[in-house]
Protein backbone atom coordinates (compact mmCIF):
# COMPACT_ATOMS: atom_id res chain seq x y z
CA UNK A 1 0.00 0.00 0.00
CA UNK A 2 2.79 2.40 0.80
CA UNK A 3 4.17 1.91 -2.69
CA UNK A 4 0.77 2.94 -3.95
CA UNK A 5 0.66 5.72 -1.43
CA UNK A 6 4.02 6.86 -2.76
CA UNK A 7 2.19 7.56 -6.00
CA UNK A 8 -0.58 9.25 -4.06
CA UNK A 9 2.05 11.28 -2.20
CA UNK A 10 3.43 12.60 -5.47
CA UNK A 11 -0.09 13.40 -6.57
CA UNK A 12 -0.92 15.19 -3.31
CA UNK A 13 2.42 16.84 -2.65
CA UNK A 14 2.57 18.37 -6.12
CA UNK A 15 0.04 20.81 -4.75
CA UNK A 16 2.72 22.18 -2.41
CA UNK A 17 4.66 23.54 -5.33
CA UNK A 18 1.85 23.87 -7.86
CA UNK A 19 -0.79 25.94 -6.20
CA UNK A 20 -2.54 26.78 -9.43
CA UNK A 21 -3.85 24.43 -12.06
CA UNK A 22 -5.32 25.24 -15.46
CA UNK A 23 -8.19 22.89 -14.70
CA UNK A 24 -11.29 24.33 -13.08
CA UNK A 25 -13.79 22.61 -10.87
CA UNK A 26 -16.60 24.24 -12.75
CA UNK A 27 -18.08 22.60 -15.79
CA UNK A 28 -17.55 19.07 -14.56
CA UNK A 29 -19.74 16.59 -16.38
CA UNK A 30 -19.94 14.45 -13.29
CA UNK A 31 -22.66 14.67 -10.69
CA UNK A 32 -22.32 13.54 -7.05
CA UNK A 33 -22.79 9.82 -6.67
CA UNK A 34 -24.00 7.84 -3.72
CA UNK A 35 -22.50 4.43 -3.08
CA UNK A 36 -24.41 2.68 -0.35
CA UNK A 37 -22.18 0.97 2.17
CA UNK A 38 -24.55 0.83 5.10
CA UNK A 39 -23.89 -2.27 7.12
CA UNK A 40 -27.02 -4.32 7.55
CA UNK A 41 -28.27 -4.13 11.10
CA UNK A 42 -25.43 -1.86 12.21
CA UNK A 43 -26.02 0.43 15.16
CA UNK A 44 -23.33 3.12 15.05
CA UNK A 45 -21.56 3.81 18.31
CA UNK A 46 -21.32 7.44 19.30
CA UNK A 47 -17.82 8.84 19.40
CA UNK A 48 -16.67 11.36 21.97
CA UNK A 49 -16.31 14.77 20.36
CA UNK A 50 -16.00 16.62 23.69
CA UNK A 51 -12.90 16.78 25.87
CA UNK A 52 -9.86 14.81 24.73
CA UNK A 53 -8.18 12.70 27.39
CA UNK A 54 -7.24 9.52 25.52
CA UNK A 55 -6.11 8.61 22.01
CA UNK A 56 -5.54 5.60 19.77
CA UNK A 57 -3.78 5.09 16.45
CA UNK A 58 -4.78 2.57 13.77
CA UNK A 59 -2.17 1.84 11.09
CA UNK A 60 -3.72 0.14 8.06
CA UNK A 61 -1.55 -1.64 5.53
CA UNK A 62 -0.54 -5.08 4.32
CA UNK A 63 2.92 -3.69 3.51
CA UNK A 64 3.58 -2.84 7.15
CA UNK A 65 2.53 -6.27 8.33
CA UNK A 66 4.55 -7.89 5.56
CA UNK A 67 7.72 -6.04 6.50
CA UNK A 68 7.92 -4.18 3.19
CA UNK A 69 7.42 -0.77 4.78
CA UNK A 70 8.41 0.58 8.17
CA UNK A 71 5.70 2.49 9.98
CA UNK A 72 6.87 5.88 11.26
CA UNK A 73 3.45 7.52 11.63
CA UNK A 74 2.62 5.86 14.93
CA UNK A 75 5.88 7.11 16.47
CA UNK A 76 5.15 10.62 15.22
CA UNK A 77 1.63 10.42 16.60
CA UNK A 78 2.95 9.24 19.98
CA UNK A 79 5.20 12.29 20.26
CA UNK A 80 2.37 14.53 19.07
CA UNK A 81 0.08 13.23 21.81
CA UNK A 82 2.78 13.44 24.49
CA UNK A 83 3.50 17.08 23.67
CA UNK A 84 -0.19 17.92 23.98
CA UNK A 85 -0.74 15.94 27.15
CA UNK A 86 -3.04 13.41 25.46
CA UNK A 87 -2.84 9.93 26.94
CA UNK A 88 -2.10 7.63 23.99
CA UNK A 89 -3.51 4.28 25.06
CA UNK A 90 -3.27 2.05 21.99
CA UNK A 91 -1.48 1.60 18.66
CA UNK A 92 -2.58 -1.18 16.31
CA UNK A 93 -1.41 -2.31 12.88
CA UNK A 94 -3.96 -4.19 10.81
CA UNK A 95 -4.34 -5.51 7.26
CA UNK A 96 -6.21 -4.03 4.31
CA UNK A 97 -9.18 -6.11 5.33
CA UNK A 98 -12.68 -4.69 5.58
CA UNK A 99 -13.76 -6.76 8.58
CA UNK A 100 -10.56 -5.88 10.47
CA UNK A 101 -11.00 -2.17 9.77
CA UNK A 102 -14.69 -2.19 10.70
CA UNK A 103 -14.06 -3.94 14.02
CA UNK A 104 -11.06 -1.81 14.99
CA UNK A 105 -12.64 1.51 14.02
CA UNK A 106 -15.83 0.85 15.98
CA UNK A 107 -13.96 -0.39 19.05
CA UNK A 108 -11.48 2.47 19.11
CA UNK A 109 -14.14 5.11 18.52
CA UNK A 110 -16.11 3.70 21.43
CA UNK A 111 -13.13 3.45 23.80
CA UNK A 112 -11.00 6.52 23.09
CA UNK A 113 -11.60 10.24 22.66
CA UNK A 114 -9.29 10.91 19.72
CA UNK A 115 -8.68 8.24 17.08
CA UNK A 116 -6.39 8.57 14.06
CA UNK A 117 -6.09 6.12 11.18
CA UNK A 118 -3.21 6.03 8.71
CA UNK A 119 -3.22 4.51 5.23
CA UNK A 120 -5.58 2.96 2.72
CA UNK A 121 -7.09 6.07 1.10
CA UNK A 122 -5.40 5.96 -2.30
CA UNK A 123 -6.93 5.57 -5.77
CA UNK A 124 -6.66 1.81 -6.26
CA UNK A 125 -9.15 -0.98 -5.64
CA UNK A 126 -7.46 -2.22 -2.47
CA UNK A 127 -7.39 1.18 -0.73
CA UNK A 128 -10.51 0.49 1.29
CA UNK A 129 -10.26 2.61 4.43
CA UNK A 130 -12.99 5.11 3.53
CA UNK A 131 -15.53 2.48 2.54
CA UNK A 132 -14.69 0.24 5.51
CA UNK A 133 -15.03 3.00 8.09
CA UNK A 134 -18.24 4.12 6.41
CA UNK A 135 -19.55 0.60 6.84
CA UNK A 136 -18.44 0.54 10.46
CA UNK A 137 -20.76 3.43 11.27
CA UNK A 138 -23.59 2.78 8.84
CA UNK A 139 -22.76 5.70 6.56
CA UNK A 140 -22.85 6.09 2.77
CA UNK A 141 -19.84 7.00 0.67
CA UNK A 142 -20.54 10.21 -1.26
CA UNK A 143 -18.57 12.52 -3.49
CA UNK A 144 -17.45 15.45 -1.35
CA UNK A 145 -17.74 18.35 -3.76
CA UNK A 146 -15.26 20.62 -1.98
CA UNK A 147 -12.58 17.93 -1.95
CA UNK A 148 -13.21 17.24 -5.64
CA UNK A 149 -12.99 20.94 -6.49
CA UNK A 150 -9.79 21.38 -4.49
CA UNK A 151 -8.24 18.33 -6.14
CA UNK A 152 -8.95 19.77 -9.57
CA UNK A 153 -7.58 23.16 -8.59
CA UNK A 154 -4.50 22.18 -6.61
CA UNK A 155 -3.19 19.07 -8.35
CA UNK A 156 -1.95 18.11 -11.77
CA UNK A 157 -1.90 14.74 -13.46
CA UNK A 158 1.23 12.61 -13.32
CA UNK A 159 3.69 13.03 -16.19
CA UNK A 160 2.63 9.60 -17.43
CA UNK A 161 -0.92 10.95 -17.93
CA UNK A 162 -0.27 13.74 -20.43
CA UNK A 163 -3.60 13.12 -22.17
CA UNK A 164 -5.59 13.24 -18.92
CA UNK A 165 -8.63 15.54 -18.93
CA UNK A 166 -10.70 16.42 -15.86
CA UNK A 167 -13.89 16.57 -17.92
CA UNK A 168 -13.46 13.39 -19.97
CA UNK A 169 -14.50 10.09 -18.40
CA UNK A 170 -11.58 7.68 -18.06
CA UNK A 171 -10.26 5.02 -15.67
CA UNK A 172 -7.73 7.54 -14.36
CA UNK A 173 -10.46 10.06 -13.60
CA UNK A 174 -12.50 7.40 -11.84
CA UNK A 175 -9.46 6.51 -9.70
CA UNK A 176 -8.84 10.16 -8.76
CA UNK A 177 -12.50 10.70 -8.02
CA UNK A 178 -12.40 7.74 -5.64
CA UNK A 179 -10.13 9.72 -3.33
CA UNK A 180 -12.79 12.43 -3.00
CA UNK A 181 -15.57 10.03 -2.03
CA UNK A 182 -15.89 10.17 1.75
CA UNK A 183 -18.09 8.73 4.51
CA UNK A 184 -20.70 11.49 4.96
CA UNK A 185 -23.65 11.87 7.29
CA UNK A 186 -26.31 14.15 5.80
CA UNK A 187 -27.70 14.90 9.25
CA UNK A 188 -24.54 16.83 10.15
CA UNK A 189 -22.72 19.73 8.48
CA UNK A 190 -20.13 18.52 6.00
CA UNK A 191 -17.72 21.12 7.41
CA UNK A 192 -17.55 19.00 10.57
CA UNK A 193 -16.86 15.82 8.62
CA UNK A 194 -14.20 16.94 6.13
CA UNK A 195 -11.67 19.41 7.49
CA UNK A 196 -9.02 21.21 5.42
CA UNK A 197 -6.09 22.27 7.57
CA UNK A 198 -3.59 23.28 4.89
CA UNK A 199 -4.55 25.65 2.09
CA UNK A 200 -1.82 24.19 -0.11
CA UNK A 201 -3.25 20.67 0.05
CA UNK A 202 -6.49 19.39 -1.39
CA UNK A 203 -6.66 16.30 0.82
CA UNK A 204 -9.05 16.64 3.77
CA UNK A 205 -9.08 15.01 7.16
CA UNK A 206 -12.23 12.93 7.07
CA UNK A 207 -13.83 12.82 10.53
CA UNK A 208 -16.30 10.03 11.22
CA UNK A 209 -18.49 9.49 14.28
CA UNK A 210 -17.09 12.66 15.82
CA UNK A 211 -13.70 11.24 16.78
CA UNK A 212 -12.26 9.00 14.05
CA UNK A 213 -9.83 11.03 11.91
CA UNK A 214 -8.82 9.39 8.62
CA UNK A 215 -5.35 10.43 7.41
CA UNK A 216 -3.15 9.30 4.51
CA UNK A 217 -0.31 6.89 5.16
CA UNK A 218 2.35 8.97 3.41
CA UNK A 219 4.46 10.25 6.34
CA UNK A 220 4.98 13.79 5.02
CA UNK A 221 1.23 14.22 4.49
CA UNK A 222 0.29 12.46 7.73
CA UNK A 223 2.55 14.79 9.69
CA UNK A 224 1.47 17.97 7.89
CA UNK A 225 -2.23 17.26 8.35
CA UNK A 226 -1.81 16.24 11.98
CA UNK A 227 0.06 19.44 12.78
CA UNK A 228 -2.57 21.43 10.93
CA UNK A 229 -5.24 19.81 13.07
CA UNK A 230 -3.60 20.92 16.32
CA UNK A 231 -5.40 24.30 16.66
CA UNK A 232 -8.72 22.46 16.55
CA UNK A 233 -7.62 20.01 19.24
CA UNK A 234 -6.09 22.34 21.82
CA UNK A 235 -9.39 23.85 23.06
CA UNK A 236 -10.64 20.31 23.75
CA UNK A 237 -7.63 19.15 25.75
CA UNK A 238 -7.78 18.30 29.44
CA UNK A 239 -5.22 21.10 29.82
CA UNK A 240 -6.64 23.92 27.66
CA UNK A 241 -3.20 25.53 27.56
CA UNK A 242 -1.93 22.53 25.66
CA UNK A 243 1.24 22.31 27.73
CA UNK A 244 1.29 18.55 27.65
CA UNK A 245 3.35 16.26 29.78
CA UNK A 246 6.84 16.82 31.13
CA UNK A 247 9.61 14.23 31.05
CA UNK A 248 12.76 14.07 33.17
CA UNK A 249 15.57 11.65 32.31
CA UNK A 250 18.10 10.37 34.83
CA UNK A 251 21.04 8.32 33.57
CA UNK A 252 22.26 5.60 35.93
CA UNK A 253 25.17 3.12 35.82
CA UNK A 254 23.23 0.69 38.03
CA UNK A 255 21.46 -2.45 36.86
CA UNK A 256 17.67 -2.36 36.83
CA UNK A 257 17.51 -5.17 39.39
CA UNK A 258 19.62 -3.11 41.78
CA UNK A 259 17.22 -0.15 41.77
CA UNK A 260 13.93 -2.02 41.28
CA UNK A 261 12.97 -1.84 44.96
CA UNK A 262 13.54 1.90 45.20
CA UNK A 263 11.70 2.63 41.95
CA UNK A 264 8.71 0.54 43.07
CA UNK A 265 8.44 2.55 46.27
CA UNK A 266 8.93 5.85 44.39
CA UNK A 267 6.27 4.91 41.86
CA UNK A 268 3.70 4.42 44.62
CA UNK A 269 4.49 7.83 46.11
CA UNK A 270 4.55 9.64 42.77
CA UNK A 271 1.30 8.08 41.57
CA UNK A 272 -0.66 10.28 43.98
CA UNK A 273 0.72 13.29 42.09
CA UNK A 274 -0.07 11.85 38.67
CA UNK A 275 3.61 11.15 37.96
CA UNK A 276 4.75 7.90 36.34
CA UNK A 277 8.16 6.38 37.00
CA UNK A 278 9.83 4.33 34.28
CA UNK A 279 13.00 2.29 33.92
CA UNK A 280 14.55 1.45 30.56
CA UNK A 281 17.56 -0.82 29.99
CA UNK A 282 19.98 0.17 27.24
CA UNK A 283 21.51 -3.11 26.12
CA UNK A 284 25.20 -2.89 25.32
CA UNK A 285 25.48 0.61 26.76
CA UNK A 286 27.17 1.61 30.03
CA UNK A 287 24.15 3.37 31.50
CA UNK A 288 20.41 2.77 31.84
CA UNK A 289 17.66 5.38 32.05
CA UNK A 290 15.09 6.27 34.70
CA UNK A 291 12.21 8.54 33.66
CA UNK A 292 9.72 10.73 35.48
CA UNK A 293 6.67 11.71 33.41
CA UNK A 294 3.81 13.95 34.50
CA UNK A 295 2.43 17.47 34.62
CA UNK A 296 3.30 18.54 38.14
CA UNK A 297 6.64 20.07 37.17
CA UNK A 298 7.40 21.48 40.61
CA UNK A 299 6.91 18.12 42.30
CA UNK A 300 8.92 16.29 39.63
CA UNK A 301 11.81 18.73 39.95
CA UNK A 302 11.78 18.21 43.73
CA UNK A 303 12.36 14.48 43.17
CA UNK A 304 15.44 14.86 40.96
CA UNK A 305 18.11 15.15 43.73
CA UNK A 306 16.60 12.15 45.53
CA UNK A 307 16.50 10.03 42.38
CA UNK A 308 20.02 10.98 41.32
CA UNK A 309 21.34 9.93 44.74
CA UNK A 310 19.33 6.71 44.94
CA UNK A 311 20.39 5.47 41.50
CA UNK A 312 23.87 6.99 41.62
CA UNK A 313 23.01 8.83 38.44
CA UNK A 314 22.83 12.20 36.80
CA UNK A 315 20.10 14.11 35.02
CA UNK A 316 20.42 14.27 31.21
CA UNK A 317 18.51 16.06 28.50
CA UNK A 318 18.86 13.34 25.88
CA UNK A 319 19.19 9.63 26.49
CA UNK A 320 22.76 8.48 25.89
CA UNK A 321 24.30 11.94 25.96
CA UNK A 322 26.71 10.88 28.73
CA UNK A 323 27.80 7.58 27.16
CA UNK A 324 30.98 9.16 25.82
CA UNK A 325 31.81 10.61 29.24
CA UNK A 326 31.31 7.21 30.84
CA UNK A 327 33.63 5.58 28.32
CA UNK A 328 36.26 8.27 28.85
CA UNK A 329 36.14 7.73 32.60
CA UNK A 330 36.42 3.96 32.11
CA UNK A 331 39.36 4.36 29.75
CA UNK A 332 41.06 6.77 32.12
CA UNK A 333 40.59 4.39 35.04
CA UNK A 334 41.88 1.49 32.94
CA UNK A 335 44.92 3.53 31.93
CA UNK A 336 45.65 4.42 35.57
CA UNK A 337 45.47 0.79 36.63
CA UNK A 338 47.82 -0.28 33.83
CA UNK A 339 50.36 2.45 34.59
CA UNK A 340 50.22 1.55 38.29
UniProtKB/TrEMBL annotation:
InterPro entries: FLAD1_M, MoaB/Mog-like_dom_sf, MoaB/Mog_dom. Residues 319-330 have a biased composition (Acidic residues). Residues 56-236 form the MoaB/Mog domain. GO terms for molecular function: FAD diphosphatase activity. One of its GO terms (biological process) is flavin-containing compound metabolic process. Residues 313-340 are annotated as: Disordered. It comes from the Eukaryota. This is Molybdopterin binding domain protein. It comes from Westerdykella ornata.
Amino acid sequence: MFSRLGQVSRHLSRSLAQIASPASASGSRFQPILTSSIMAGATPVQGNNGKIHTAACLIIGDEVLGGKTIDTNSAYFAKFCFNLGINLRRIEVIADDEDEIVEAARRMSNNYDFVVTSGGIGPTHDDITYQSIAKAFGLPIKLHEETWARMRRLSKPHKSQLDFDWDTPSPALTAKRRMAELPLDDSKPYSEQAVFVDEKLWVPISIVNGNVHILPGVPSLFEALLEGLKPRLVPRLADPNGKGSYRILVSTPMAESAIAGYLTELAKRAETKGVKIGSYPRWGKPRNTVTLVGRDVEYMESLVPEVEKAVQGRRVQVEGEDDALEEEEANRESGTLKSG
